[in-house]
Amino acid sequence: MQDFDTLAIRAGIERSQFNEHSEAMYLTSSFVFDSAAQAAARFSGEEEGYVYARFTNPTVTAMQDRLAALEGAEACIATASGMAAILALVMALLKSGDHVVASQGLFGSTQQLFGNIFSKFGIETTFVPAADVAAYEAAIRPQTRLIFVETPSNPLTELVDIAAVAEVAHRHEVLLAVDNCFCTPALQRPLELGADVVIHSATKYLDGQGRVLGGAVVGNKVLMDEVFRFLRTAGPTLSPFNAWVILKGLETLRLRMEAQSASALALAEWLEGQPWVSRVYYPGLPSHPQHALALRQQRMGGAIVSFDVVGGREAAWRLIDATRLISITANLGDTKSTITHPASTTHGRISPEARAAMGVSEGLIRVAVGLESIDDLKTDLARGLG
Ligand SMILES: *Cc1c(COP(=O)(O)O)cnc(C)c1O
């Protein structure tokens, strides 16, 4: 087994007859057969090979193989977006009457998908506090098939103890899926900690440059065969163009994650010393309530820093509006730093009372730290104070 850095550059390469050095991009929707007999054999699955790009495409296969290698997994199924990955997971492995336990504070669309959409088809979800291992076990019913978590959470960087929740899941013969969007395999490898499935929004750090949408489900061959059967029929497939962009993004993943995490830590430490900041949320800080767990299950703190400013919404908006460098956008995972006010954007549809109970205050700001100079980022954040 090669090292992560080698796999990130070399895994998944299968050269064509032209022996190209950089990975080729196969923009084709279908594939030609030598004969009617071969077409029949490909369709029946008797002979392995490409048929139609809704099922598989060589560029998508390359990206899947590379990401599987980086997560230390047997297999990966790429999807059109991160949400499509979660849809494919649940449609492939669950059925009406099944029950899910999920961590509170999931990505907004994920919360909607479990809470409002799967429930229409008879798959019910119970949400439990992310850090409370006993709550996952207490919520398990005879019909429970899946525990779904995200760690660290957005925007408050709460952690789920993956190994402890995996132990609970397996004692009850339930699968554990971890959305590894925020850490990526460069910083956290959930399968090694006992998870069964890893979910990715490749739109974020895997591409890393804000160019394309993509997603992936990663796990063992048996489970991924099930996910593939859903995908090839239902069609939330990743385009070969996007797969190629993500494939190339993976080559620099560790370097970007380490540099962005190092900047995030420096920024978090600086913010903690500012009189206009009342609290900083960052797993890499010793003040984080789960710092010991972060050191155990993540290589670094990640690139998301949130903080409460003194003065509530007015002060938060003033700080955001004064920035000239950092992009005001809810997206994250880019080399360009972004800033957002969760209470009025990503969490704006939640009632003020529920928001306060979650800990998303009116003065909360989230910064997804990119690759710009840390000094320029500090200057930009302090601009609104004059
Ligand atoms: C963005 C995001 C998703 C959804 O991914 P898309 O590619 O936008 O569909 C899922 N989970 C997390 C944690 C995310 O940040």
TrEMBL record:
Listed GO CC annotations: cytoplasm
UniProt keyword Coiled coil present: no
Stored InterPro entries: Cys/Met-Metab_PyrdxlP-dep_enz, Cys_met_metab_PP, O-succ-hSer_sulfhydrylase, PyrdxlP-dep_Trfase, PyrdxlP-dep_Trfase_major, PyrdxlP-dep_Trfase_small
Keywords, ordered alphabetically: Amino-acid biosynthesis, Methionine biosynthesis, Pyridoxal phosphate, Transferase
Similarity comment: Belongs to the trans-sulfuration enzymes family. MetZ subfamily.
Assembly description: Homotetramer.
Protein name (Swiss-Prot/TrEMBL): O-succinylhomoserine sulfhydrylase
